[in-house]
Design brief:
Number of strands: 15
CATH superfamily of the largest domain: Periplasmic binding protein-like II
Strand order of the largest sheet: 2-3-1-4-11-5
Shape: globular
Order of helices and strands: EHEEHEHEEEHEHEHEEHEHEEHE
Enzyme class: transferase
Pathway: Amino-acid biosynthesis; L-histidine biosynthesis; L-histidine from 5-phospho-alpha-D-ribose 1-diphosphate: step 1/9
EC number: 2.4.2.17
Structural class: alpha/beta
Largest sheet: 6 strands, mixed
Family: Belongs to the ATP phosphoribosyltransferase family. Long subfamily.
Bound molecules: adenosine-5'-triphosphate, 1-O-pyrophosphono-5-O-phosphono-alpha-D-ribofuranose, magnesium ion
Strand content: 25-35%
Subcellular location: Cytoplasm
CATH class of the largest domain: Alpha Beta
Length: 281
């Protein structure tokens, strides 16, 4: 039976669970259960702390897991990202009291509070900067005011926690993070693991794309197809009126209104957009 780790709480948990549900897997019914067996799909789900998930997967105890890219980066295990899942997006950044630091080099010789010491130590080493990381479990933003550190390195989503603590980011982010599917590095995936990966990938496609249908006169077809090239090749069908054709194609959901305006201006009519419920691309 395939064994899969899912975040049991925190920012990634709800989105990971709803994505797996959308992919047809049965999730735990009790909010505190730590294990749930999906008999129909023959998958056993383990609800674990997101930080621990890379350890279980890297050790080969569990086959797949969902965690944060930043947590994977901080772990010292041999697990690797196999699919970016598009939720729980954040950046991982250095910050210090407003006006005190402007460049990452300013961290030289300073104390940096973080819950991600391996990620930070690796970044500093790559830059040739010697500094001391102070490992804290959370509420890292308040550590500078309390005097245990001079700067912090932490997850930034909206930036409101930083601002409330009088801190400002500086330098480029160490990482852009999001929820990711992970597997043991170099492991050969079982057919069931391949299926789970494919299902999640197609949940993303269904969320990110829509189906667009429109009619257009043959003389304007190429112009319209240039704007709606589809994923592989759009379907072009004859209509009863030989001067017209019908086009069916996939369009990124974010662009749908712009694309409709453009093909309309190029002569397309009867433009209809349909959401994708489920798919396998
Ligand atoms: N606003 C956010 N705050 C914290 N983590 C976030 C946020 N948005 C996304 N994440 C991601 O969630 C993961 C951290 O999850 P984790 O459950 O350890 O901490 P948490 O969401 O802060 O929960 P808690 O600290 O309450 O246990 C990281 O991959 C991080 O990038
Ligand atoms: O940029 P923002 O939108 O403000 O979000 C980022 C903050 O949220 C998280 O903290 P969390 O609430 O998980 O508390 P913690 O520090 O105890 O983990 C994270 O560690 C940052 O502090
Ligand atoms: Mg937290």
């Amino acid at each position: 039976m395939l064994r899969v780790a899912v975040p049991n709480k925190g920012s990634l948990s709800e989105s990971a669970i709803s994505m797996l549900k959308e992919a047809g897997y049965a999730m735990r019914r009790e909010p505190k259960s730590l294990v749930h067996r999906d008999q129909r799909n023959e998958v056993e789900f383990f609800y674990l702390r997101p930080r621990d998930i890379a350890v279980y997967v890297g050790e080969g105890i569990l086959d797949l897991g969902i965690t944060g890219r930043d947590l994977l980066g901080d772990s010292v295990t041999t697990a690797e990202e196999t699919l970016a899942l598009g939720f729980g997006r954040s950046t991982f950044r250095y910050a210090a009291p407003a006006g005190t630091m402007t460049r990452i080099e300013d961290l030289r010789g300073k104390r940096i509070a973080t819950s991600y010491p391996n990620l930070v130590d690796r970044d500093l080493a790559a830059r040739g900067i010697e500094a001391r990381t102070v490992k804290l479990d959370g509420a890292v933003e308040v550590s500078v005011e309390l005097g245990v550190a001079d700067a912090i390195a932490d997850v930034v989503e909206t930036g409101s926690t930083l601002r409330a603590a009088g801190l400002e980011t500086f330098g480029e982010p160490l990482m852009h993070s999001e929820g990711v599917l992970i597997a043991r590095s170099g492991a050969e995936l079982s057919p069931a693991a391949e299926v789970l990966g494919r299902r999640l990938k197609n949940v993303l496609v269904a969320r990110r794309y829509v189906i667009m249908d429109y009619d257009v006169q043959r003389q304007h077809l190429d112009e319209c197809l240039a704007v709606t090239p589809g994923m592989e090749s759009p379907t072009v069908s004859d209509l009863k009126d030989p001067a017209w054709v019908a086009v069916r194609t996939m369009v990124p959901a974010d662009d749908v209104n712009t694309v409709m305006d453009t093909v309309y201006e190029k002569g397309a009519r009867a433009i209809l957009v349909t959401r994708i419920g489920y798919c396998r691309i």
